[in-house]
Task: inverse folding
């Protein structure tokens, strides 16, 4: 019989490996585990209960929020607040960061997150996700969290992960010692280690990009896409684009592929947010042996200046990212 391991057991087992002597990062990961289960329960009944539709507010990017975005946002924030190991959270759904009260001032960590990624896919029963990124604060412990705690380059991340609410619900994360994936058994609500030591194939056949934006891509990127096209005749490539970053990213991580959300004429920095979309996925893909670039530099080396700043993103199998860059870098 295979060795069955739950996420809870795994976190404790690996505690030493990621230098978590006081167990605080383990507590943080446990609170994410709890929120994942609660949000998963709501996501899976989204078609049954009257939870669909918009909440009537717009987030800072001017996008319409859906009710599940708001629900997921509050569940993750509350789960993180109660363990008192996090001093503040920044989220796609909040214009400013959330500073936790005095009882959390001793928290060493901050979390940045996209609580519900792919929200346009909620009411059509297509996979969606949650993304999170964890840093050690740089402001003194014992006081309130500061903006500078959130504006750190991705290389400072101590953990990052995502939840994919798909045909199965999975939580995938890294603490800088490889990437591991856990799948929920829906009857028990338990997350089991299902994908130990995930590695991104060096090569792949899949390219993922919103080709409706083709006309406003740079000449180099157009050339790369033309190189991938015509696969029946000369090349092995195939296009896959779900429109949920997490679903596209996860498929490419498992099968090999490259995901691109480049700059366009109307969006010079692309669409995705550096701090809670690009950076956490960059950390994961690098830990799995892949690469992530904004077209000019490694994603994780970008020095952020704003909470909600955007970055172009080219991410996935190492050789495929290199190939894209060989077309776009001139
Ligand atoms: P979110 O739902 O958090 O706003 O993110 C949506 C993102 C991402 O998930 C997806 O890859 C991308 O938007 C799709 O954008 P386009 O529709 O422009 O292709
Ligand atoms: Mn998103
Ligand atoms: Mn979102």
Result:
């Amino acid at each position: 019989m295979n060795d069955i391991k739950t996420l809870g057991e795994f976190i404790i087992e690996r505690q030493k490996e990621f230098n978590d002597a006081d167990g605080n990062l383990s507590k943080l990961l446990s609170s994410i585990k709890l929120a994942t289960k609660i949000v998963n329960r709501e996501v899976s009944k989204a078609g049954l209960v009257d939870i669909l539709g918009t909440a009537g507010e717009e987030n800072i990017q001017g996008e319409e929020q859906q009710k599940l975005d708001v629900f997921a946002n509050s569940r993750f924030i509350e789960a993180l607040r109660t363990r008192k190991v996090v001093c503040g959270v920044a989220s796609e759904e909040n214009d400013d960061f959330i500073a936790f009260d005095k009882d959390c001032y001793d928290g060493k960590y901050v979390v940045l997150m996209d609580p519900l990624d792919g929200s346009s896919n909620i009411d059509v029963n297509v996979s969606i996700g949650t993304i999170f990124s964890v840093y050690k604060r740089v402001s003194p412990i014992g006081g309130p969290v500061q903006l500078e705690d959130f504006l750190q380059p991705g290389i400072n991340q101590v953990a990052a992960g995502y939840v994919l609410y798909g045909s199965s619900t999975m939580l995938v994360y890294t603490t800088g010692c490889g990437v591991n994936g856990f799948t929920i058994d829906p009857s028990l609500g338990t997350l089991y280690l299902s994908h130990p030591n995930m590695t991104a194939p060096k090569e792949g056949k899949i390219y993922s990009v919103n080709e409706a934006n083709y006309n406003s891509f740079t000449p180099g990127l157009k050339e790369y896409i033309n190189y991938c096209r015509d696969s029946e005749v000369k090349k092995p490539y195939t296009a896959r684009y779900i429109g949920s970053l997490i679903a596209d990213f996860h498929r490419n991580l498992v099968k090999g592929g490259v995901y691109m959300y480049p700059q366009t004429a109307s969006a010079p920095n692309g669409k995705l947010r550096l701090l809670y979309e690009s950076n956490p996925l960059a950390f994961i893909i690098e830990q799995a042996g892949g690469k992530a670039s904004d077209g000019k530099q490694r994603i994780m080396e970008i020095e952020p200046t704003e909470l909600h700043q955007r970055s172009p993103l080219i991410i996935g199998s190492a050789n495929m990212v290199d190939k894209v860059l060989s077309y776009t870098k001139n």
